[in-house]
Amino acid sequence: MEEQKSKLDAAKIESFLQMAVNSAGFDLKYKIGPAENLHPDFENPEIVVSFSGRDVDLLLSNKAELLLALEQLAMEALRLNQNEHSLLQFDANDYRMLRIEELRLSALTAAEKVKRIKQPFEFNPMNSRERRIIHLALRNEPDVRSESMGSGPYRQVIVYPAGMPSLPRSRNPLARRRAVRSTAAHLPDDRAEDRTAAAKRFLQLQDTIVAISTPPGRGGIGVVRLSGLNSRHIAEEILRFRKPPDWKSWHSMLAHLKDPEGSTIDTVVATYFQSPRSYTAEDMVEISCHGSPIVLRHCVERACAAGARLAEPGEFTLRAYLNGRIDLPQAEAVRDLIKATTLYQARIAAQQVEGSVSRRIAPWKEQLLELISLLEAGIDFAEDDISVAPAEEILRRLTPIRQGLEDLVKSFAFGKLIHTGFTLAIVGRPNVGKSSLFNRLLEQDRAIVTDIPGTTRDTVSETASLGGLPVRFVDTAGLRVGHDPVESLGIERSYQAMADADLTIVVIDQSAPFDSEDKELIERARRSGRSLIAANKSDLPPQAEIPEQFVPVSARTGEGIEEMRRSILESVSPEGAFHQEAGFITSLRHEQLLRDSLAALAQAFQAARENIPHEMLLLDLYAALRPLDAITGATTADDILNRIFSTFCIGK
After folding, report:
1. What is the DSSP letter of 586?
2. Amino acid 439: pLDDT
3. Burial category of 440 from C-beta neighbours within 10 Å (exposed 0-12, middle 13-18, buried 19 and up)
4. Do the domains 427-571 and 97-203 match in fold?
5. Which residues of the chain have pLDDT under 50?
6. Which CATH number is correct for 97-203, 3.30.1370.50, 2.40.40.10, 3.40.228.10, 3.10.20.540?
7. pTM for this entry
């Protein structure tokens, strides 16, 4: 014990932490002291290092990946052997106690699943302290048993139905296909939410939920959707079938919706979707009623009385995501598809629902994971003669990853237009044909048109589709010195519309001489942002000598309108954007996360150039991986280990 205490010298721990925290540039504070108020069944360290500060969330992200990595580095720096690892513990924001609660809830959930499906359940590999809490949580649980399997410090806990023989043991458990994915892997990774709340929310996902899936109002049909383990049972409670229902997946049956007294309220069609071939990957029943709000509400109320819970907004899609049916970009694309206002928007959203964004990110994430695995293997298994990659090799691997992600970020310039559209202001002097051009582009008589100068006194706006993009067209008052307060106010709004617009069309009367007022208006539009010049009244003899490039149009005859539409689209979209059919980044969240990843990759690139130790370089690579995980889904330590063991011949 004296030898162990000497290895846990607080001064040595302080020295290591100063080096690690300062080198990584973390904004962290830490306190080194004896262990207090720890769980007697789980924790027995002599010294606990407690972290706080602005960057503590980074330590706790991805299931405290950096916190545990820092703890492991400290143990190696202090030369602690395997049996002495339990003497030192790193903690932040009571993570350890929250982790205990999460593991207990996960263990109980796994036990319920094993009882239900009569199949073993495998947790991801974990350390001995975490395995212990799983076993303790299940020691009094009837009808199941648990055991650890594997070798080394990180082994698996497997939960079996009582009496079932153990799975074949493998020297490399990571290479064996898992029967069931880990419960903990399904928990949402939300930095603002503690682990206990996340585990409790996971348990809520075992409820059967109900909601009306068709839009509010009256219609020919309305659909009530049930999802969860008890969907069929609840449907049988609220519906009366002509004969005992034969639930076949993707089949429909005629039934009657009952009231509590058993009287018929409506004749409905019940369709069953068996897990996992349903939208949520759970058992689902869709009840198609007549589209009366009263009938639909009654159906939902009866389902709730039978044991269902009202679904939260978006919960059906949330369950599809958490059950692995879709990834996060696909879930976000479902929302975009529902909100689409043009066919082009719907087409791009449908491609994203099919996984186009994830497919574009996947190759670069794969290459980043390969590089991380290479460096991790070089550090962890150096004694097995695995060569550490030289700086040139690291730089060579980083370059295409950075370029690929930069191309994705660039696609957001056009993706943003697809998602939100743009505003186009039409400005010019009085009586040059602004309102006529506005109506012609909209293909409807939206603005009043007369021969009297100054007819339009205020801005008039309308949204329409142009090349599949939603465009808000804004017609403005003629720009001149106002003759009365009302016209002056309209002119001020015209200048404001020009400043707010993504693109301004300056309309010039081609049949009248070009003068200084036209020139000043063109210069002002150019200073405000992107602009085009429309030389209107091209059907009349030309008199204006316009010293700028322009598009000749006739709002009266329609001549040149198609060319004007093409010029508008070319002005707001990158070259060749419309020829790219898939993989646009349309979400601001995705664009910001990709930029975060690129920033971390730039730091890793610089670190490799300066021959920074690979342990520190890996911090930047993991920082680049985390934003990609936030888009496509988390990468676990298990994934990294799988790559290490499959790529290299360890201990040959």
Report:
1. -
2. 85
3. buried
4. no
5. 1-6, 170-203, 383-386, 636-652
6. 3.30.1370.50
7. 0.54
Q: Please give the CATH number for the structural domain made up of 427-571.
A: 3.40.50.300
The DSSP string of 288-301 is EEEE-HHHHHHHHH
Nearest Cα to 236, choosing from 328, 151, 146, 303? Answer: 303
The domains of the chain are located at 2-93, 97-203, 208-322, 356-417+587-647, 427-571
Beginning with the edge strand found earlier in the chain, give each strand of the sheet holding 251-258 in spatial order: 239-241, 251-258, 264-273, 284-291, 219-227, 209-212, 309-310
Residue 126 DSSP label: B
SS3 256: strand
Q: Residue 456 has what pLDDT?
A: 57
Which amino acid is it at 580? Answer: Q
Residue 89 sits at φ, ψ, to 5 deg, of -145, 135
Q: How many CB atoms lie within 10 A of CB 504?
A: 28
Each residue's pLDDT tens digit, 545-555: 777 788 888 88
CB atoms within 10 A of CB 139: 8
* The one-letter amino acid at 175: A
Using DSSP's 3-state secondary structure scheme, residue 59 falls into: helix
* The CATH number of domain 208-322, selected from 3.10.20.90, 3.40.50.2300, 2.60.120.620, 3.30.1360.120: 3.30.1360.120
Measuring CA to CA, which residue among 139, 110, 130 is closest to residue 122?
A: 110
The CATH superfamily holding the domain 356-417+587-647 is tRNA modification GTPase MnmE domain 2 (1.20.120.430)
Enumerate residues 6+ apart whose C-beta is below 8 A from 148.
131, 135, 155, 156, 157, 158
Contact 27, 54 (CB under 8 A): yes
Would you list the DSSP string of 378-428?
HHHTGGGTPPPPPHHHHHHHHHHHHHHHHHHHHHHHHHHHHHH-EEEEEEE
CB 617 within 8 A of CB 64: no
The C-alpha atoms of residue 51 and residue 33 are separated, in whole angstroms, by: 12
The tens digit of pLDDT for each residue in 367-405 reads 998 888 888 777 655 544 445 678 888 899 999 999 989
| Topology (CATH level 3) of domain 2-93 | GMP Synthetase; Chain A, domain 3 (3.30.300)
**pLDDT at residue number 580:** 56
Q: Which amino acid is at 47?
A: I
Distance CA 456, CA 450 (A): 9
Smallest CA-to-CA distance from 403 within 539, 211, 230, 594 is with: 594
Helices 356-380 and 328-339, axial angle in degrees (round to 10): 160
pLDDT score recorded for residue 204: 61
226 vs 284: CA distance, rounded Å: 5
Rounded Cα–Cα distance for residues 240 and 254 (Å): 9
Task: Give me the torsion for CA of 360, 365, 371, 373, rounded to 10°.
Answer: -140
